[in-house]
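As a warm-up, study this chain.
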Amino acid sequence: MTTRDKPWMMRTYAGHSTAAASNALYKQNLAKGQTGLSIAFDLPTQTGYDADHALARGEVGKVGVPISHIGDMRTLLGGIPLGEMNTSMTINATAPWLLALYIALADEQGVPRASLQGTTQNDVLKEYLSRGTYVLPPAASMKLTTDVIAFTYSQVPKWNPTNVCSYHLQEAGATPALELSFALAIGCAVLDAVKDSGQVPDADFARVVGRISFFVNAGIRFIEEMCKMRAFVDLWDEICRDRYGIAEEKYRRFRYGVQVNSLGLTESQPENNVYRVLLEMLAVVLSKKARARAVQLPAWNEALGLPRPWDQQWSLRLQQIVAYETDLLEYEDIFDNNPVIDAKVEALKAEARAELARIDEMGGAVAAIDTAYMKRKLVEANTARLARIEAGAQVVIGVNRFTETEPSPLSTGDGAILTVDHGVEEEQVAALKHWRETRDADAVAAALATLEAAAREGRNIMEPSIGCAKVGVTTGEWGDVMRRVHGEYRAPTGVGKAARTDAAGEIAAVRARVSDVSDRLGRRIKMLVGKPGLDGHSNGAEQIAVRARDCGFEVVYEGIRLTPAQIVNAALEEGVHVVGLSILSGSHVPLVTDVMERMRAQGLPDVPVVVGGIIPPEDAQALRAIGVAGVYTPKDFDLTRIMSDIVDIVDARTQEAA
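Now compare it with the structure written out below.
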């Protein structure tokens, strides 16, 4: 028995609707014992758009807080002492800008930069693979990532400038070995870019390595996940020592925070998610050698929509009970020298090393992203995971086994989830207009010109960005400069063109039905899979596209971040028979309504529209009322059955039109 260890930092990932509402939520959570902030930004903020941009429609304040300028940041963090707080910001493509706003606010308050503690995720490479909030091409994105690292190690030395994020890789389907290898490959790509940039002297490089942190995922197979974390510790130490020559152990330490798996949360019998969240947390706290430094847990009802403050409190109390009521923190690592654990860890390390070698042969993580190798591997792994669930080989209680249930008093009735008021977007747009009208326009123009010159000349953009923040430049204006200098980018989708040749059972039956209907139509049924708005979580859309092709459809899928106008134009030009829209950000009602209205205006009223996403029952009813032919939510896990429905919808609609 030893002296009791300090508990990990306890966070909840939070932010929604407005800066003022989010500030109130943060203060409530801190009063309940939360020990750090974890800020969720809305999609326009994450992708560098202002609230009044066409792509921002329906997305403002939905999955996080909108931050358009330093005034919003003042409101967001009002009354929270920046010099004492440890603040994590889940921000990637616009990480330099949000950090600039944070530092500008600290300067304004007289808080020394050297006292600031926190993390910017700033791992844009995984955005091309999973979450989709990238803006610029990979090389330009890595330049911005490097700028943040080079700036913070000297100016904000307690800050973690990059949080290599494997969390979203697992959400996109990664196995433990893929999560290990892809995250470590990205970590190497980041450090290689820092070395190649010349912005950090060789003598200081070890300090930079010591500030790189990771953000991981922990799934329900908690023994395997715990072994994965022990493998992460060993492999990162090995890479830092052998690849980068880091001699001091403290700089080689694998420092990580975690949010446990949201992918495994179920809409069916959602109260079961409490047990899942607890077991998943154990994977990252039981082993002292591989214990997380910060833990944030999803709420039990996040598969239904935004959690309420009470739901977040429940997750926080779970952490506190494990940390303070149990004896977990009183012992050394209980898994050391366990032959079963050691064997599993070594097997994971061997598989990860082999995958890392393949990526290195391709030229590293950036090259493996550009060629779609990494994305394709994730899509394939996710396809295999879904196939196991559909076949019952992977049991999900309440979904594919033990589905009989009583109505849950926790998730029925009004107010079961938090909803964002529809007026939030209008208010944010009006406030943004007023902000632009009342600031010093000449100072803004001069600051933007300085920023653009730095970007074009390849200089570090952090101080010019802080200068922009101080004079009132907006998120969209900063993003416009970056797009103008570096251009925009569309990542490979990872959805191959080849359909399965081994179709049997239900897939074969649906394929035969597709052939019959196609023969009657005179050509193959064509389906457009669209991602309107800024929601970059493309896993569902990718799997629908893959399964549709497996079932014999001709599929049009152009990836994420399309306007309703672009989707309708594609439907018209491609002559599709059905449009499938995937939206997980909560913006389904305004975006689908926009698509439907445009389709009618373009003479496509007979082309059915189906929608998938996290959609509450009342919203599903509203969508059907405006003519949506089918609504599918996470409980509809059988993709082949969805395909069968869509064939029936197309058949019925085309016969009606005839």
